[in-house]
UniProtKB/TrEMBL annotation:
Record-given protein name: Inactive metallocarboxypeptidase ECM14
The protein's required cofactors: Zn(2+)
Every Peptidase M14 domain range: 187-505
GO terms, molecular function: metallocarboxypeptidase activity; zinc ion binding
Keyword Zinc: yes
Protein localization: Secreted; Vacuole
Cleaved signal peptide residues: 1-18
Role summary: Inactive carboxypeptidase that may play a role in cell wall organization and biogenesis.
Protein species of origin: Triangularia verruculosa
Domain of life: Eukaryota
GO CC term, one of those recorded: extracellular region
Transmembrane feature ranges: none
UniProt-listed CDD domains: M14_CP_A-B_like
Length: 537
């Protein structure tokens, strides 16, 4: 076998560690392991794996406390790792883009301007093939997460917490709003728990909230929404209402997006009448919150596969179910049609083939045509990479008519987050956020298609002129496996952004006025800011 000499050479290579048994360094809570020191490179990992394969000896301490995990999770993900490719040059990004198109063992987690994160399935099997395809400058990526099963298990509530789970009949919850918030946001929550919680909020705040179902998922689950707003008597008699839509959970594994939407709901309903900005916002607008657009995928991440991304809809390939809802909407859908059912970005065989995307779009159209609703803003929450993205996603060649306003508000949202927590969010178009490299004649190569996105459809078809996709925490230490103690900080960040968003809309009555008028709360970006934004793009 041709690879054996290489593997054996790597296995027998001298190590910088003197101890016979190597215990990997840990990061933070000893679940998501990030290796930034020179002692632990991809070659070190390859060497350790080779020892195990060829000599049957494990160099990892399987009894370490950090590796206590669920047996099913350990079996499914024990040989998976998460890599970061520091791809900064044209050649590096082009090579990586081409590899991802043909190498199905790579699951792209996020694409940023200076790096690409990806999960490598069954690294023992596929690492040699990947290394052969990579250019020399990319052959030693960082390993962001080595012990993936432990990182996954750490995102679930532990057994003790689970027995104390939220119940809509709990007397302690009914009698203490503060206690309800503290309990609910201590952990990520199941779909059934979130549904009960939303019903309870409707009962507790009847003048502010209205719970509804916007449609059914492929497996028949309700897609629940909560409308929050303080309507006066005139509006209740049939007056139209400007509306902001906030969605989460289009991708099942992005739990922080769902918990952030629920945190926004809680913050809005409990602060009305106390916080002047929130009170003013809810007096003037309705905000419709949909925490889980993809309930089938979300439930599947709790029951079977924590890292599942797509819906659970059947496809024409038996072993590749599911569709990427963020590539399933009808606007410029065809630019993403080349991906097959086994691709993580597969958006179906036709526009709105995905049931959940179709249900959301039909509900939104009915709201505008039958109820006089005017969608003035759309915030679609995802994870991860800390980015604020605006239309268009399908191409980098076209620019939205109100580009300057979108950039201005995007910069303001990022500033509001930074003032709230100190975290930095970058601002760019959704297309630029997914481009691997820019070739000749402004041609772009992407690691996943951009057509059929939710923000493009709501922006172009529904007229929501301020449409953004916000990719939440973090920038890679945990990726999709963000620990539960980030739920409240992430929620506070987006709450600050939402308040700024509403303040901006109130400054011009929620109507797009053109590029020459600007909200007094959001000064026009300076020339230096424009240059910085263009440099990022």
């Amino acid at each position: 076998m041709r690879l054996q000499p290489v593997a054996l050479a790597l296995a027998l290579a001298p190590s910088t560690n003197a101890a016979a048994t190597w215990i990997e360094p840990t990061h933070r809570a000893q679940v998501s392991v990030q290796h930034n020191n020179h002692d632990y490179s991809i070659l070190t990992w390859f060497r350790d794996a080779a020892v195990e394969v060829f000599f049957g000896k494990r160099l990892r301490d399987d009894d370490a406390e950090a590796r206590k995990t669920n047996p099913e999770i350990a079996m499914r993900h024990r040989d998976d790792i998460v890599l970061r490719f520091n791809a900064t040059t044209f050649e590096q990004r082009r090579a990586l883009a081409e590899i991802t198109k043909e190498f199905q063992a790579l699951d792209i987690w996020t694409i940023a301007h200076e790096y690409v994160d990806a999960r490598l399935f069954n690294a023992k099997r596929y690492m040699p093939g990947l290394v052969r395809k990579l250019p020399d400058s990319l052959k030693q990526p960082e390993i962001l997460i080595y012990d993936l099963p432990s990182a996954i298990w750490a995102t679930f509530p532990n057994a003790e917490k689970t027995t104390q789970g939220f119940s809509s009949s709990s007397q302690s919850v009914k009698t203490s709003r503060e206690g309800m918030g503290n309990l609910f946001f201590k952990d990520y929550q199941r779909l059934s728990v979130i549904t009960s919680w939303m019903r309870l909020l409707e009962a507790m705040f009847p003048s502010l909230t209205e719970m509804t179902s916007i449609g059914k998922s492929f497996e028949g689950r309700d897609i629940h929404a909560l409308r929050v707003g303080a309507r006066n008597e005139v509006e209740e008699e049939g007056g139209s209402r400007k509306t902001i839509l906030v969605t989460g959970g289009l991708h099942g594994r992005e739990w922080i997006s769902t918990s952030t939407v629920t945190y926004l709901i809680w913050s809005m309903v409990t602060a009305h009448g106390k916080d002047p900005m929130i009170t003013k916002l809810l007096d003037k607008f309705d905000i419709v919150f949909i925490p889980i657009v993809n309930p089938d995928g979300y439930e599947y991440t709790w029951q079977t596969n924590r890292l599942w991304r797509k819906s659970r809809q059947e496809t024409n390939t038996e072993h590749c179910p599911g569709m990427d809802l963020d590539h399933a909407f009808g606007y410029e859908w065809a630019t993403n049609k080349n991906s097959g059912p086994c691709s993580e970005s597969y958006g179906g065989d036709s526009p709105f083939h995905a049931v959940e995307a179709s249900e959301l779009a039909q509900w939104a159209r009915n709201q505008t045509s039958q109820n006089g609703v005017k969608f003035v803003g759309f915030l679609d929450l995802h994870s991860y990479s800390q980015q604020i993205l605006f239309p268009y996603s399908y191409t980098c060649a076209a620019q939205p008519p109100n580009l300057e306003n979108l950039m201005e508000l995007g910069v303001g949202l990022a500033k509001a987050i930074r003032l709230s927590s100190g975290e930095a969010y970058t601002v760019t178009s959704a297309c630029e956020g997914a481009v691997a490299y820019r070739g000749k004649d402004n041609d772009n190569s992407r690691m996943e298609g951009g057509g059929g996105s939710a923000i493009d459809w709501f922006y172009h078809e529904l007229g929501a002129k301020y449409s953004y996709q916000i990719k939440l925490r973090d920038t890679g230490s945990y990726g999709f496996l963000l620990p539960a103690d980030h739920i409240v900080p992430a929620g506070e960040e987006v709450l600050s952004a939402l308040k700024y968003f509403g303040d901006f809309l109130l400054g011009n009555n929620g109507i797009e006025k053109g590029s020459t008028e600007h909200s007094p709360q959001s000064p026009r970006p300076t020339a230096g800011q424009w240059r910085d934004l263009k440099r990022r793009r």
